[in-house]
Write a structure and sequence with these properties.
The structure is a single chain. With about 525 residues, the chain is an alpha/beta fold. Helix content is about 60%, strand content about 5%. It contains 23 helices and six strands. It has a six-stranded mixed β-sheet, with helices on both faces. β4 (about 480-490) and β5 (about 495-505) form a beta hairpin. The protein is globular.
């Protein structure tokens, strides 16, 4: 059937075949990626209408406001990307949603750079389509954080490594050093990618030629040089982000076994739909897999070794150190398995199958945008989120209004619940600085903002740890104003979930209330 369809395609297939003809002409892949970014950005705009941005995305934006070589909880790359993006695009929900999906689109583009080293034509498209059927490039990508920022960096670094191993040229070696350093300042988990490069080079038959050249040593020197500002920051600031990462290494042998099993099963599940489709495409030709692997080109074989390393090395580390190992930490590496499977086949894949997978991807995407997104938006408007993100904007605006009413000045610093503080920094028209602390569970310290400059903090009423911290600050500072109000979600004019917010305002000392006692104003309804 597939061969017959390729010889005499149905009329509805002909536009898709013309599109596939444009792969080597250079426009088919960019068109696919552009459509992917546009449609999934639309999905996010509908699904999270009235829902606010994810706290991780708000954190990335907040951190990026102040350039640094590191931040309290995370390496700096996600903050740098958010800062660069908002220096061009506006500070709004749609802008950062577009940023998240553009990052996913860039990741797919870099994956295609790898694929085109091994195949031509519609097989390149098939690689991208199978990846689009995993959750990594839409649902994982929309939470722009230290994990999602790796989506684009890992394939870029891998492409540079493949080219450096093949050519042993100085420029590619420098590129490997720079991109691996960039991956490391994205998330320290990327050490497993770097280690997998070393493992792959050692396991490959061409290892002697590579290691006797200058290429690997140039990469090491350049990588360390590029990392040196961050290493200096770690050494001079107490290495808080490294300590935060090590906090995941607190398990026992039994829990580590469970983590490793869940890690592997999670990645298998993420690839489930794509794997089933590939089985249907290959059919009886699957029996050729061992022969295909034996006949793989040196570059594809190197990629297979990298893929193995990114799974085996984290699992061994988890078992040895008792670390947490969520599978979402490794989703950016799924391309390492798809590219060798598709590009390593020595038999031709009929375009009939690529068109069919295109239709499946298009159908899933349209169903997500037209059906799932509105249902999700309505459900969340009525039932809310645990973190309260569909109330962020309302709480930020009401706090800003009350602060200006009290002091007559813009709000300059905000603290309280970490997510609410990030949200207030973003959604308040004053865009106050985040004053910390970020984690109440770790410390009940006083926020960084000096009380004489004034600050505000906010918590949801049911956040006991945050409310307890507010009481501690009130006793420590003295001149505070404490109020409560209610905010309510709204979607397309339809009222939704309501929740109480407690705010603590520490006015500048020259505007402090006459009495040191707290001023209470209970149950005031916030404006929307």
């Amino acid at each position: 059937m597939a061969q017959r369809s390729d010889r005499a395609p149905a009329r509805w297939r002909r536009p898709f075949l013309r599109w596939l003809d444009g792969v080597e002409a250079g426009w088919a892949v960019p068109l696919l990626i552009a459509c992917f970014v546009a449609v999934w950005t639309l999905y996010l705009a509908i699904a999270y209408a009235g829902g606010g941005l994810h706290p991780d995305t708000l954190e990335a934006w907040t951190l990026g406001r102040d350039f640094a070589w590191g931040y309290a909880k995370h390496p700096p790359l996600m903050g740098w990307v958010a800062a660069a993006w908002t220096s061009v695009f506006p500070t709004s929900d749609w802008s950062l949603q577009l940023m998240a999906m553009a990052n996913a689109g860039l990741a797919l583009f870099f994956v295609d750079l790898i694929s085109r080293q091994f195949v031509t034509g519609h097989k390149r498209i098939l690689v991208l389509l199978l990846l689009m059927l995993t959750p990594a490039y839409q649902f994982h990508a929309q939470r722009f954080n230290a994990n999602a920022v790796q989506l684009a960096i890992w394939p870029l670094a891998t492409w540079c490594f493949l080219r450096a191993f093949e050519t042993r040229g100085s420029l590619w070696a420098i590129a490997v050093g720079c991109t691996t350093a960039l991956a490391m300042v994205g998330k320290y988990y990327s050490i497993f990618l770097v280690a997998s490069f070393a493992f792959a080079a050692l396991a490959h038959p061409g290892r002697r030629v590579y290691f006797t050249s200058a290429s690997p040593w140039i990469s090491i020197v350049v990588g360390l040089a590029a990392l040196s500002p961050h290493i200096h920051w770690l050494a001079t600031t107490g290495a808080s982000s490294f300590t935060y990462a090590l906090a995941h290494a607190n398990g026992i042998a039994a829990s580590s076994l469970s983590e490793a099993r869940t890690f592997v099963l999670g990645l298998v599940a993420a690839m489930g739909v794509s794997a089933v489709l590939w089985v249907l495409i290959a059919g009886t030709r699957l029996k050729q897999l061992p022969a295909d692997f034996a006949a793989m080109s040196p570059g594809l074989r190197l990629l297979v070794y990298v893929a193995i390393g990114t799974i085996v090395l984290p699992v061994l580390t988890s078992l040895a150190m008792g670390t947490d190992l969520p599978s979402l930490w490794a989703l950016q590496g799924l391309f390492l398995f798809v590219v060798p499977v598709v590009c390593g086949t020595r038999y031709p894949i009929e375009r009939f199958y690529t068109v069919n997978v295109t239709m499946i991807v298009a159908g899933v995407t349209l169903a997500a945008v037209l059906v799932a997104a509105p249902i999700h938006a309505v459900h969340r408007n009525d039932h809310g989120y645990e973190e309260g993100r569909n109330l962020y904007a309302q709480a930020a605006r009401e706090l800003t209004r009350q602060w200006r009413e009290l002091t007559g000045e813009p709000l300059s610093a905000v603290s309280g619940d970490g997510s609410l503080a990030f949200a207030t920094a973003f959604y308040s028209p004053d865009h106050p600085n985040n004053a910390g602390p970020f984690e109440f569970e770790d410390t009940l310290g006083l926020p960084k903002a000096a009380p004489e400059r004034g600050m505000a903090a906010l918590c949801f009423r049911d956040q006991d740890i945050c409310i307890h911290w507010m009481g501690w600050v009130s006793r420590r500072v003295g001149h505070v104003v404490r109020r409560e109000f209610t905010v309510q979600a709204s979607l397309w004019g339809r009222p939704g979930l309501a929740r109480e917010v407690v705010v603590l305002m520490v006015p500048p000392q020259d505007k402090a209330p006459a009495s040191a006692a707290d001023e209470f104003s209970a149950n005031r309804r916030g404006t929307e």
